[in-house]
């Protein structure tokens, strides 16, 4: 599902840059938009979202001005996402969300839309901004466990 969101945001980003799309790309955008159409339940609740968000369970790292926190992604859609265990994100504040899956590192820019208390942390609604980036991580040599790995495992 994250790959679909990445592909959609990349294609929409090309449009926003004025590059344009080929016919196959236009068909792919249309297919993705139809798969994420708001459900009948959303329409009855008068939710004014353009795309449906689906429940997911992923972790990522939120980075921004004085922010570098691990968060849990609980909802994901073509237009944005909802994260839990997040720091305070002001409305309109831009952040980067990094999601690592295997050898791929997906990086999305987003801005805060809404914020709710969630215990000690916050539950935050984010809207995607711009084009995402996907990095392929390659290890030049074998990794040897060290103190940094122990700290990450303890967290």
Q: Main sheet, how many strands, which sense, barrel?
A: 6 strands, antiparallel, barrel
Strand composition percent: 35-45%
Strand order of the largest sheet: 1-2-3-6-5-4
Oligomeric state as shown: single chain
Count of individual beta strands: 6
Sheet/helix structural class? alpha+beta
Number of helices: 4
Radius of gyration: 17 Å
Which H/E pattern describes the elements? HHHEEEEEEH
How confident overall, as mean pLDDT?
Answer: 84
Note poorly predicted spans.
none
Helix content: 25-40%
**Cα distance spanning the termini:** 27 Å
How would the global form be characterised? globular
Report what the structure shows.
- The chain is an alpha+beta fold and 155 residues long.
- The chain is 27% helix and 43% strand.
- It is built from four helices and six strands.
- A six-stranded antiparallel beta barrel has the order 1-2-3-6-5-4.
- A hairpin with a 3-residue loop joins strand 2 and strand 3.
- It is globular, with a radius of gyration of 17 Å.
- 19% of the residues are buried.
Short description:
The protein has 155 residues and is of the alpha+beta class. Helix content is 27%, strand content 43%.
SSE order and pairing:
Elements: H1 2-17, H2 23-35, H3 40-44, E1 54-64, E2 67-76, E3 80-86, E4 94-101, E5 104-118, E6 121-136, H4 147-154
Antiparallel strand pairs: 1-2, 1-4, 2-3, 3-6, 4-5, 5-6
